[in-house]
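Dear Dr. K.,

Following up on our conversation at the group meeting, I've run the structure prediction for Winged helix-turn-helix domain-containing protein from Lysinibacillus irui. I'm pasting the input sequence below exactly as I used it, so you can double-check it against your construct before we proceed with anything downstream. Let me know if the numbering doesn't match what you have in your notebook.
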Amino acid sequence: MKDILKGDELLTVLGALSNPYRLKIIAILHQEKRYVSQLARELAISRPLLYLHLQKLEEANLINGYHEVSESGKAMKYYTLNPFSITLNADFIAQVASGITDKKRKE
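The predicted structure tokens came back this morning:
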């Protein structure tokens, strides 16, 4: 993740972090990469629901998904955590606030 977020990017990241399952996914991936079935079992959720959470985290550039072929020849989708650090304080929010677009007006 780049060092300086724009306003809309910050909103995407904060939105991605606003769910307990997504925070748990980050905590798991902080330990080591996991493939989808591992994550689903660890979180005790369905794979379709897991994919929705993974998509939100990928859109925020917090995680990265890629395919690997196992020794048995099976394609497996793995996820890793992208390094990131966000310090939230009033100064930072004041800096990025001007970069927030009014999406409702554009629609």
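Two things stood out to me. The first strand starts at residue 34 and ends at 35. The CA atoms of residues 67 and 77 lie 4 Å apart.

Best regards,
J.T.
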